[in-house]
Amino acid sequence: MTQLSSLAVVEAHQLNSALPSQIQTLQKNAQEKLSTLVVPTRKTEHWKYSAKRLGDLSLLSNNSETVSTTAFVENAIYIDISAAGIDAAALSEIEESGLTLQAFTQLSDEDCSAIIELAEYERGELEQINTALFNDGLVIRIAKNAVIECPIILNFVQDEAGLTTPRVYIELEQSAQATVIENYAIADVDGAFCSSQTTALIGDNAKLTYLRQNPLGSAFRIGGTTRAILKRDANFESHILCLGSAMARHDLHVLMTEKGSHCELNGVVVTKEKQHYDNHTEIEHIASNCTSEENYRCIADDNSHIVFNGRIYIHKDAQKTLGEMNNRNLLLSNSAEIDTKPELEIYADDVKCAHGATIGQLDEKEVYYLKTRGLSDEQARQMLTLGFVLELVRAVPIASLAEQWEQTLSELLSFKD
Amino acid sequence: MSESDKEVKELIKREYEHGFVTEIESETFEPGLNEDVIRRLSAKKNEPEWMLEWRLQAYKVWQEMEDPEWAHVNFPKIDYNDIAYYSAPKSKDDGPKSLDEVDPELLKTYEKLGIPLHERARLAGVAVDAVFDSVSVTTTFKDKLTEAGVIFCPISEAVHKHPELIKKYLGSVVPQKDNYYAALNSAVFSDGSFVYIPKGVRCPLELSTYFRINEAKTGQFERTLIIAEERSHVSYLEGCTAPMRDENQLHAAVVELVAMDDAEIKYSTVQNWYPGDEEGRGGIYNFVTKRGACIGKNSKISWTQVETGSAITWKYPSCVLRGEGSVGEFYSVALTNNAQQADTGTKMIHIGKNTKSTIISKGISAGKSDSSYRGLVKIAPTAESSRNYTQCDSLLIGDKCGAHTFPYIENKNKSAIVEHEATTSKVSDDQLFLCQQRGIDAEQAVSMIVNGFCKEVFKELPMEFAVEATKLLEVSLEGSVG
To answer: What is the ipTM metric for this complex?
Structure first.
């Protein structure tokens, strides 16, 4: 049992004195909390299947290099977020009506309180590490009624080993709309560890489309948390491409706090070799008349390991809720492992909730059908395997990105001879 | 509040009908647990040395364990030194030789419970081993069973008469250190049933046990061991009741089933322990470990349970599917009302090739109760072409209750197919309206809808149990509409 506070990287951490005092207090409190938390083991329920992938956290060190990346979606706003922090000067060069970009260091006291309030929802070991150790953060604010057409792309870049803790806060005011893409570029070396946190506050009738692509790797480790808090009639749509690495985990936490909100969560997970991916999603229906839909498809090949833990939590007052969760898995190898746990926790009676989970392999009848049409066995299997996930990829609202994802997946799923 | 709602509210006050205490002289150990108590318990039963050693070993294991806290239930910590570990009806002789010698007060108790002990038993074709507090009181129809070669006797008797079987199989499915309550049971189990079905025998009667906790401040720790040899078949029924008391009583049983090649064991339970009053005072803590091992090829173990009682239920009847082509089944209805809490489900461990399992779980929550399904389906790398289908549905009645589903699915074999489905909904207003429109009152309508909801499970129960289960649900649900 190692306490998180005794990790070298935590002890060596120095607060960024340029941060507003309120934020510094938040970090100090989080650091104190670390002494009550221990490094997750197999016995930690929410790390049951992934704890052994965490690696030796005591070897982690701070990382503080700066980098920049190239564009991959046209007509987009690019923001680089690296261990060194946020380049405030670069932010001020971006001009888009209705969009305000700020670094945490530039925040007024009032702005800080909003961020600190949301920190109350935080939980989990990695998230606490992020809160205790981040150097700077990015604030994206979309003004009332503003519709930002071009996607905002956040590049999380890490070029060498060490721990990075990027942090983003997104706020959409009433009836605002925006698309945010999170792109991770992490050096595939041992000891590279990224613990990110993104919180989105989606105002009345506002809509956030959230896309996240986790890079492919074999050595780096990544644990990210995304939290969306939905107000009245708000809409949250998320599409996630999950490619494995030594340890990859994403916690997606949606809180539907006011009536009439809707969320749709889609995820595609593909792992090969010795990779790992763990998705933990939780949809909390706090207010009545909200709807949620969740679809995750996973494919595990070789010696890889996929974990899915999806939970729908319906609070006492969340009557007239509709919740649906679907998790389908394809296991392609006898040395691979898929563990899935679709959970329902329901405290209101007038609800309709359903979840389904399957683990299986390709339908031999379907393979046979394609073979009768002249495809080779290999082609048929490849087509069906790809088709299994493409349905979700094609739902991605940015066409050029959907194409890229399709390309990546078809390369990844092409069979070796 | 509508007229029908009022009727319903009145009906809710209906009390637990098995809540009587039988006034018979009994011999009970003073509360407390230590090695000495185990030695005395063992001596009381005239047990051989190896049995005592086994108990003491379990006690050591238990002392090093901690009570599990992962279940979705809340209760104050149990003081294990406040429980008496042995209570038996006092008898002047060593034990009753026939039914006539059994204390008539006791027989009256069973009559009140409606269990078929005398002639009624033969009519019903059921052989009963009744466990009163801690000891087996009487076993009926011994002759008929002996003729078929079936051994059906209290486990304390089996320790003397069939030590080789007990030594071989006791703890082989549920080891002493399996979990906290199993370890406790292994140390202090007082009695239970032992069943042995020889090769190729189809048990001529349905075997049945009836458990009753009578004495205050006692715990009941019975242990059941059923062994079905090659090509044999047995159907076993289990029922339980307890008097109404303000304090909580502990029931920590262990059931072990062993099925050889082509054998089939069907284990049905109707659990109606005292659930506590409306506020959640009193009631039985039902912490039970039940597990079956399908060792032989094409063997089959089927669990069917109807759970309506107990303040807290913590129970996961499981199957370890080791033999090639073996089959595990779990059919469950768990109903909670008032302040009851249930965390129940099953574990299906697929190890052999072509193994199949089916899980049908129906949870019904009413009042301010909480019911959870917790299940594990595990496919080992060796379980080629195995198959699992799970369906767990929850029905909510009232807005203060909770229904939860925690299924764990672990797959390590690519040729296995695992399917899981779950739904949660309430008795819809449309359904109620339709029934009421046709002259069926709200109460009846709900019971009808609930019965329909549970039909898939009830049809798996032996006939006489199915009738009892339907009635139990009606009684337990009374007053929960509105």
So the answer is: 0.79
The answer to whether A190 faces chain B, any CB pair under 8 Å, is no
Q: How far apart are CA B290 and CA B265, in angstroms?
A: 13
As a 3-state breakdown, chain A gives helix, strand, coil percent values, each rounded to 5, of: 25, 40, 35
Which of B414, B432, B449 should be substituted to probe chain A, the one whose Cβ sees the most A Cβ atoms within 10 Å? Answer: B414
B59: its two tokens? 């006690």
Q: Is the whole-model pTM more than 0.90?
A: no
CB contact under 8 A, B414 and A357: no
- The string of pLDDT tens digits covering residues A288-307 is 999 999 999 999 998 999 99
The structure tokens 């050889």 sit at B260
Q: Which of residues 397-426 of B touch A (CB under 8 A)?
A: 397-426
Whether B65 and chain A come into contact, CB under 8 Å, resolves to: no
Q: Pick the residue of A292, A324, A344 with the most B CBs within 10 A to test the interface with B by mutation.
A: A344
Contact A337 B396 (CB under 8 A): no
The domain segmentation of chain A, as residue ranges, is 4-361
Burial A156-165 (b: 16+ CB within 10 A, else e): bbbbebbbbb
**The pLDDT of residue B18:** 61
* Partner-chain contact A334 B414, CB within 8 Å: yes
| Residue recorded with tokens 């329901």 | A346
Q: Among candidates B79, B81, B75, B68, which has minimal Cα distance to B30?
A: B81
Q: By C-alpha distance, which of B266, B282, B138 is closest to B202? A: B266
A231 CA: distance to closest CA in chain B (Å): 24
Do the Cβ atoms of A236 and A263 come closer than 8 Å? yes
Closest partner residue to A344 (CB to CB) among B404, B412, B414 is B404
| Residue A45 touches chain B, beta carbons under 8 Å | yes
Would you say how long chain B is, in residues? 482
| Residue B144 structure tokens | 């008929």
- Nearest CA to B130 among B159, B150, B145, B108? B108
Percent of chain B with pLDDT over 90: 22
Residue among A316, A329, A342 whose CB faces B407 most closely: A342
Choose the closest CB to B426 out of A45, A350, A354.
A350
Report the candidate in A219, A216, A277 with the shortest Cα–Cα distance to residue A249: A277
Q: What does the alpha-carbon distance between residue B462 and residue B249 come to, in Å, rounded to a whole number?
A: 29
**Residues forming beta bridges with residue B321, ordered by sequence position:** B294, B350
B409: Cα separation from own chain's centroid: 24
- Which residues of A fall within a CB distance of 8 Å from B400? 316
Q: How confident is the model at residue A44 (pLDDT cuts 50, 70, 90)?
A: confident
**B396 — contact with chain A (CB < 8 Å)?**
yes
CA distance A326 to chain B (A): 9
Burial label, A21 (beta-carbon count in 10 A; 0-12, 13-18, 19+): exposed
DSSP SS3 for B432: helix
pLDDT tens digits, B129-159: 666 555 555 555 677 778 888 888 888 888 8
Angstrom distance (rounded) from CA B407 to CA B420: 8
Place of tokens 């007038």: A350
- Measured on CA atoms in the order A184, A187, A189, A195, is the torsion positive or negative? negative
Q: Which residues pair with A13 in a beta bridge?
A: none
A332 contacts in B (CB within 8 Å)? Answer: 414
- Would you put residue B392 in left (φ > 0), alpha (ψ -120 to 50) or beta? beta
For residue B473, the number of C-alpha atoms closer than 13 Å in the C-beta half-sphere is 30
Write the CA distances from B199 to B92, B150, B325, integer angstroms: 39, 10, 19
Highest mean pLDDT among B74-88, B109-123, B369-383: B369-383
Cα A322 to Cα A324: distance, rounded to the nearest angstrom: 7
Residue in this structure with the two tokens 């339908």, named with its chain if needed: A363
In sequence order, what are the beta bridge partners of A322? A291, A352
DSSP annotation of A6 reads G
